[in-house]
Amino acid sequence: MQRPRLLPPLSRALLLCAALLPVGSCLDFQGYEQTPTLTTEVEDWRDEVIYQVLVDRFANGDNANDYRVQLGAPARYHGGDWQGLEDQLPYLQELGVTTLWISPVVKNVETDANVDGYHGYWAQDFTELNPHFGDLVALRRLVDVAHERDMLVIIDIVANHVGQLFYYDINLNGHADEQLQGNGVDSPVMYINEYDPDFDERGIQSFTSLGEAGPAPIIFGNDPATNHMPPNPAVFRNPAIYNRKGRTLNFDVEDQLLHGDFPGGLKDVDTSRCDVKQAFVDVYARIIEQTNADGFRIDTIKHVEHEFWRYFSQRVRQRLAAKGKRNFFMFGEAFDGRDDLVGSFTQKLAPDPSEHDCAAEATGAPALTGDQLDSAFYFPQYFQAVRDVFQQGQSTDRIQALWEQRPTTWGTEAPEGGIGIAPSDIPVNFLDNHDVPRFLYGVKDLSLEVQRRLLRNALVFLYTAPGVPCLYYGTEQELRGGNDPANREDLWDTGYDRSGGTFRWIARLAKIRKAYASLRRGDVAVTWASARVGDEEDAGLFAFERTGGTNKNSYSLVVLNSNQVHASHTGFEGAAMPVSAPPGLVLEDALSGNSFTVAGDGTIDVTVEAMSAVILVPAGDIVNLD
User: Which N-terminal stretch is annotated as signal sequence (predicted)?
Assistant: First the structure.
């Protein structure tokens, strides 16, 4: 049974009333008419377990906002909302989740080309919330209730583009056209879609039968039914703030990467402009000021100049800290396997006199430093460890090689005013997400038993590797959808079952991680990585120590076997694995209770079954988690 809402749904007019008129001029908002006091709710982000939620697909707690819902169509709205997420917080707490990452909250284009904006990445109005998910009261209450349960909330944002809000009037007739030109003999055949024309480095040009006629003007939509409307706030209605170069064809070309429209007609914003930088700081900082949420996950960061992220991250930190919100976490998504590229958004930028930092427009604001984001979504590890090793059984030495890069490819100093942790120490780790097939889809041709063993082994890696684990919603229910939108299933179809083996496995891993500080905050050292993948004695073995974190529970040793055929052990041709633990120390597996002893020469021999792992801690530190 769905419990009743505390308040009825608020119309846009009432939201504007609450925002613009004095207290007492509107309805009784039962305490939510006041701007919340911003608070700092987190000590160390490495202690957190993030759960990524696609709000529309998680839980439907308020039928009053169920419009345009088509449950049988994977690319349309399905009815999930913030009320439903609030209702299911006990489910998430039992799973061991401490932080919710929710999909974007601002008002979107309703539908485009028979696909809805249920995901949140097609912004139309940055000053209003998406009414499909609820109102400001519902969002604030979700944050408040989460905080009462010692949980945090991260909000997904986009600063690279807006939705499909205008077309290029290439033929100057005032209508959005699709046309074929050329006969293939005297002239090339060209297909032109004025909503999504191909990239032109000069900018999209207009032309008539007489030839080119200069830059094509843009015309904003005016269709309230699908919310193809001019954007808000007003700065986004200025044609000059868009790069207007058309659809990116090759992401390896820097001009297209940074200035092209995202395929599908998402219009690229000129993020080098001061008015754009300031507008994005204002609209997104204001959402935090209205809700008291705790962080941002930032979409498509590699499509935006580094100078923007320097400006945005620092000005947001400063504005929120002045009102009481510190340790505000900002991590970005660059869908790319190149660790140097992903990590570059966390490094300090060298001074560049050619960059305009908008200091003149920010009277009294501190001078900008080289700091950028606090962290990044660890896509290189997704490709090189999750996919290559834990799904495909490739050599584990590639994980070691990747981890050894991070001190040079990621920032090694905590950004000023940030979360107090060097970015290289806090990557955001994941097995899958809304942009890639689910983990189980990648191993769908194997037996169900093998699929589960591979998933649970990868989950041990996720919960023990340095950084913050991020679990994609539904992994605990063994969802197995392929590419978007098949990987965006309705969680309510599972009944939120808490008895399944994978749910219980994840909950246990969360308890283990919480019990042993070294698994959360400890330094890492790889103690064994293998180049072998066949029948060799150590094929598939990967081991690492975590040391430090607190004075107690300051040592752990994780050994994983990714080999899908046989048990392997931490030795090869007579060589044994050295560890930093003292000789004679008894280590106990927090998963099974089995014990291993460090030999007199400081080595340890650990045998691990295929597709399995051990989490070893000193026997004297063992905590009863039952």
Answer: 1-28
